[in-house]
UniProtKB/TrEMBL annotation:
GO terms for molecular function: isomerase activity. Pfam families: Rotamase_2, SurA_N_3. Gene3D superfamilies: 3.10.50.40. This is Parvulin-like PPIase. The keyword NADP does not apply. It is a single-pass type II membrane protein. It comes from Brevundimonas guildfordensis. Residues 249-367, 389-477 form the PpiC domain. It comes from the Bacteria. Belongs to the PpiD chaperone family. Keywords: Cell inner membrane, Cell membrane, Chaperone, Isomerase, Membrane, Transmembrane, Transmembrane helix.
Length: 641
């Protein structure tokens, strides 16, 4: 049974359940929508489950954000659509929701206790110092992903269902022995053959290309050679520059802020205590009795098979569960609490010591208060400049004059592509809004003030457009000539190898053909498909020997500047005494692959039963992307007379 669960843990079914939950937030299952006919059109419909336009855009934006983080550059919806990522996402989500809808109707419904147990297993929700569940970390993690606790529970419930069905698919499954025997027989089969190498000197070399040949070669590679469109902009920045003086802060402002923040700045009361959390009140009552009888908290925790929460000098605000925090800070030193009903069960606390809070003096708080007041002043000055700029624009001034009137900075950015790349291919360090604004304007166009968040504002003027263009022949003559020569040499080499192989296929002896070509013939027996053989004879020879039947001729590339031509002379079956143990070793891997295939079939079949479907056209409409142009249809064949 343990083996089955280990295999299951490596499968596609278990990936969502055992991965860190923060990573699984990229794709969140949509909830049941019983009012589907009264609401907007659904992009994904799977029985009682569906995804509407708003949910789809939110989920797909998470996917885009993850791609941008991995690529280290902006990724647009157009880029994703060109790669058909929207279709892959739609298909995977449609099958997933269809499977989950089928599972729910089949009665596979995990209880709330199981879901809470899964939440308690997620390391991201626990304080790294105390090892206890931290409500603040829990709320922050959910807020960062725009999720609610209900959405998380639903997602965990879906993962639990998937794991439950997956374990049923894996349990007791084992690939037939004949499957492993076929693989073992193929791995230990040996072959005899003869071959020789065909070099570039045998095939001849291409001469220098003419301008006409290079021009034709340029046309063939137009898409690769064409430079992208670049745009040059003037950027208006309203925030202070790096060398600008910081706003002056008066003593009166500092004193006023200190009086307002004094309570919050003070060192809070801290307590050292332990907590023991159990699912039921009965268990908590027993723990209370044991602690009040003088038993050691660690021993009580061990006896109840639970983890002891050890809090050292902790303020009330750092206690994850508000109910537990309030109860602990109402106790006296060495006092044991009654059972406290919290969010994840019943908690018993015992206070060891109390550290009184301390007030913070004005001088101690001064640096932080000055920094805070200066940041607020900068934001105020920035917004005042924005208002002056907009007023000047309303009066008819252009972007440059309005920026001067508002005392804003105007900088010229280097040319960049729509994806934010500079001419040298390096990414430009600019906000996404800058790129989008630049490519939304026509030449000479000026944008309105755009809020970039966190008190940052900017305006854009599109100064110039460098259109996409092919380079001139003189600009790329040398590298283009080199590529043309490489292509022609490869063509000559391939043609020569095929010519020699054709002579052998026509009945000539391979020894004579090799001698006529000036090549040395290699004769090998007992060649096996292995890394050792690959290193000895080369990949091209190994592919040829094991890709043809007895007596057949093979030809293929052996290295960048050589081909191999050869003949399969004999095929020897594997030794059964050696193949049998190998077959048993390969069987677990085959079982895993078979189970994964069955899992995919199960999901697809369940989705088909719920008549799951999606609407790619509506998805593109929601993303604001035009549908890719369909490839031109091939001309119809003339009718036979």
């Amino acid at each position: 049974m343990i083996t089955y669960f280990r295999n299951f843990a490596k499968s596609k079914w278990a990936a969502g359940l055992f991965a860190l939950i923060i990573l699984s937030f990229l794709i969140v299952g949509a909830q049941s929508d019983i009012f589907a006919n009264l609401g907007p059109r659904h992009i994904i419909s799977a029985g009682d489950r569906s995804v509407d336009s708003g949910q789809f855009r939110t989920d797909f934006e998470r996917v885009r954000a993850n791609l941008q983080e991995q690529a280290g550059r902006p990724v647009s919806y157009d880029d994703m659509v060109k790669e058909n990522l929207h279709l892959q996402y739609l298909d995977s989500q449609t099958q997933r929701l269809g499977f989950l809808d089928w599972a729910y109707k089949a009665g596979i419904r995990p209880g709330k206790e199981l879901i809470l147990a899964e939440i308690r297993k997620i390391p991201a929700f626990f304080n790294q110092i105390t090892g206890q569940f931290d409500q603040n970390l829990y709320a922050q993690a959910l807020a960062q992903q725009n999720l609610t606790s209900q959405m998380l529970e639903d997602d965990l419930r879906d993962q639990y269902v998937t794991a439950h069905v997956g374990s049923a698919v894996f349990a007791g499954l084992q690939a037939p022995r004949v499957y492993a025997a076929l693989l073992a027989g193929q791995a230990l089969e040996t072959r005899d053959g003869r071959w020789f190498s065909v070099t570039q000197d045998m095939a001849g070399r291409a001469g220098a290309p003419t301008d006409a040949q290079l021009t034709a070669f340029m046309k063939e590679n137009e898409a690769r050679l064409r430079s992208p469109e670049f745009r040059m902009i003037s950027l208006v920045l309203f925030s202070p520059g790096p060398n600008d003086a910081r706003p002056a802060i008066t003593e009166e402002q500092i004193s006023e802020r200190y009086e307002f923040r004094k309570a919050a700045l003070a060192e809070p009361e801290k307590r050292t205590f332990v907590t023991l959390t159990v699912p039921t009140k009965e268990a908590a009552d027993k723990i209370v009795a044991d602690l009040r009888a003088g038993k050691n908290a660690a021993e009580v925790a061990k006896a109840n098979n639970i983890q002891l929460g050890d809090y050292k000098a902790t303020p009330q605000a750092a206690v994850g569960d508000p109910a537990v925090g309030a109860a602990v800070f109402a106790l006296a030193a060495d006092q044991v609490s009654a059972p406290i009903q919290g969010r994840l069960g019943f908690t018993v606390a015992k206070v060891a010591s109390i550290q009184a809070g301390q007030a913070v003096t004005l001088e101690t708080a001064r640096p932080a208060l000055v920094q805070e007041l200066q940041a607020e002043a900068v934001k105020g000055e920035t917004y005042a400049k924005v208002e002056q700029f907009e007023k000047a624009r309303q009066e008819g001034k252009n972007l440059a004059d309005a920026a001067a009137a508002a005392k804003a900075r105007v900088i010229q950015l280097p040319p960049f592509t729509e994806q934010g790349q500079l001419p040298d291919g390096q990414p430009m360090n600019a906000p996404r809004q800058v790129l989008e604004s630049a490519y939304a304007l026509s030449k000479g166009g000026e944008s309105d003030v755009i809020d970039a968040g966190d008190g940052q504002y900017f305006a854009v003027r599109l100064d110039d457009i460098r259109p996409s263009a092919l380079p001139t022949l003189d600009e790329v003559r040398a590298p283009l000539g080199q590529q043309w020569t490489m292509r022609e040499n490869a063509r000559l080499l391939s043609a020569k190898a095929e010519e020699l192989a054709g002579r052998i296929r026509a009945g000539e002896d391979i020894t004579k053909v090799a001698a006529d070509a000036g090549a040395q013939l290699t004769v090998r027996t007992g060649v096996q498909q292995s890394r050792e053989s690959q290193a000895q004879v080369g990949d091209g020879v190994l592919r040829g020997l094991f890709g043809q039947a007895k007596g057949q001729v093979f030809s293929g590339q052996q290295a960048q500047d050589s081909f191999v031509v050869g003949r399969v002379d004999a095929i020897h079956a594997a030794d059964t005494a050696l193949a049998a143990p190998l077959a048993e070793q390969a069987r677990p891997r085959l079982t895993e692959e078979l189970a994964n295939s069955m899992a995919d079939r199960t999901i697809a079949s369940a989705a088909a039963r719920t008549k799951s479907r999606n609407d790619p056209a509506l998805a593109l409409q929601v993303l604001g992307v035009e549908a890719p142009a369909a490839p031109a249809a091939a001309p119809a064949a003339p009718a036979k007379k």
